[in-house]
Specification:
Elements (H helix, E strand, L loop, with lengths): L1 H4 L7 H5 L5 H9 L9 H21 L3 E9 L7 E8 L4 E7 L17 H14 L3 E8 L3 E8 L2 H20 L11 H5 L13 H23 L1
Parallel strand pairs: 3-4
Antiparallel strand pairs: 1-2, 2-3, 4-5
């Protein structure tokens, strides 16, 4: 837990891009972490299947996994961290994933790079942190399909991730939260202001917007009654 608390992990990297839960939710997880919860059933099953996926990968490629679950930190930016599922004998990062049979169309054909953006971002982060420039994503789909996706290192994505990570971590250190987005859960946003006391005077434009909202609600109720 402390390893994740004091830095940004590979699975959290998509949040920097806003393609998973937002930067604000990531910020709150660092400065005000929730109590550690038990892993879910899918998480436990995925962990149990990792040795099987490693074995399938080795038999499929002839390139066996020599290192599993090793932690790395970026040599320059120590808050950038990654736990690697596997490193093969040829020196590739190998990320293990499982997908339910009903979601098999969420990934492309074997040998392509057609995987979800969150996975691509996670693997790019892992390569950025470790300095390794080739990665495979090994995916067990249901119990009857196994595919491997080759992901090369992209300098453009890496540069963007470094810039976003540095800006984000400076906010964590200064306790300056990123701006909320329309996708943020209001309960998450409320955590930023839970110590506030007293009253806040709304600007005129917000008062007018609130009045229009109330008027629209009354009109909707009247129309529903008429219907």
């Amino acid at each position: 837990l402390a390893w994740r608390q004091d830095g940004i992990g590979a699975s959290e990297a998509p949040q920097l891009l806003g393609i998973a839960p937002s930067p604000l939710s990531l910020y709150l997880s660092k400065v005000d972490p929730p109590r550690e919860s038990e892993s879910t059933i899918p998480q436990r099953v995925g962990k149990m299947l990792e040795p099987l996926i490693a074995d399938l990968y080795g038999k499929e490629t002839g390139d066996t996994i020599r290192v599993q679950q090793e932690c790395f930190s970026h040599p320059e930016h120590s808050f950038m961290r990654a736990t690697i599922d596997g490193i093969s004998n040829s020196g590739k990062i190998v990320e293990f994933k499982t997908v339910g049979a009903r979601s098999r169309n969420s990934v492309g054909s074997d040998g392509t790079d057609e995987i979800p953006d969150t996975w691509i971002t996670q693997v790019q982060w892992q390569m950025l942190v470790t300095g390794i420039t080739q990665a495979d994503v090994a995916v067990l789909i249901g119990n009857d399909d196994f595919r491997i996706f080759a992901i090369p290192f992209e300098k453009r994505i890496a540069s963007l991730l470094v810039a976003l990570a540095r800006e984000f971590w400076s906010r964590v250190e200064a306790r300056q939260p990123p701006a909320p987005t329309n996708d943020d859960d209001p309960t998450q946003v409320a955590r930023l202001f839970r110590e506030c006391r007293g009253e806040i005077e709304l600007p005129t434009d917000l008062v007018e917007a609130a009045m229009r909202y109330e008027a629209a609600s009354r009109a909707i109720n009247q129309l529903n009654e008429i219907r």
